[in-house]
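Table S5 (text form). Sequence records supplied for joint modeling of the two-component complex.
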Amino acid sequence: MSRKMSAKAIEKALTRLADPAVNSEIYLASTTTVAKDIIQSLPGVKRLRKEGPKVAQAVLPRVQVKQTQKNENFLSIALHILEAYPSDEVKFGLAKPIVDHRFTGLNSFLAAETFLKAIGIEAARADVVATALREANKIVVKDKKTVVKDKSSQQAATNIQKRGKRPARSKAK
Amino acid sequence: MAVFRTSSGRSVSHCHVRPHPVDPCAATEWSSAKRAHWREYMAEHFPNSVEVRAPSRKYNCYGYAYAHAHGWFEEPDSFIEDDFTEVPMNQARRGDVLVYEKSGEMTHAAIVKEVNNNGTIRKLRSKWGQLAAVIHRPREVHRAYGHPARLLRRNA
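The corresponding structure-token record, covering 329 residues in total, follows.
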């Protein structure tokens, strides 16, 4: 059995995959099926998809930064790796970028597919992108409501604290 | 998604390069520098291919073979069902469409350019993903495209 990859080795493998000299081949894909086939053949991808959740922890932050979103081929690779690790982290990590339409080209399909797997929903191939957008919207809206609710609770707590600290108003004039 | 219709009037979803693209499509076309870069890439990795149309993100192999390079199409099934009829591989004619498959899935489409005396295909032209449209031999394609599986002829 091969040894587990260290965090450093995972970073090194991801850095290599971000190199255009390594990932340019993905531009030869006309469909997501072909793109995935090419991605699978790139160095280290198969292993990264099997290595374990710590790979997802290293990949997810990269997917969320704008710098990675400009490197569309690396983004394709990252999304394909994340597809192997369905989890709440992936679900919440992809919901907002999907709603914000930050994925274009083949990546919108790969992101949708990875997100749907993370939330445990299957969709027909033609409906994957639309279904993911609809479901991601639900999460983002719910999240906003929670944030607003949290903010309201915080504000209420602050007000109570402020009122507590404020010297009692004298009723006497 | 934009709409493109088959000869039977069925709409086929596809997309175009736009600053705010409808999923899934690219936001920008290649710059001149990038085009030059991709030409070098093709020359290095596929030296036998001959460019016939510049590298472009506006259309893919399906758009090129089935819809006159109209846009980027992910699903070609409607075109095949409505606009084409399958013909034997050894009865190829210029203009026919060769379908490539890998592991039972469609991967690529190419237009027949030259045919041998025995009716087999000598040369094709096809669009390679987001790179150029090139002339090539049937087996001289990227490995992810698989192998020639079916030959289609546009209905009269």
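Note: The interface with chain B takes residues 24-34, 37-38, 41, 101, 103-109, 112, 125-126, 129, 133 of chain A (CB under 8 Å).
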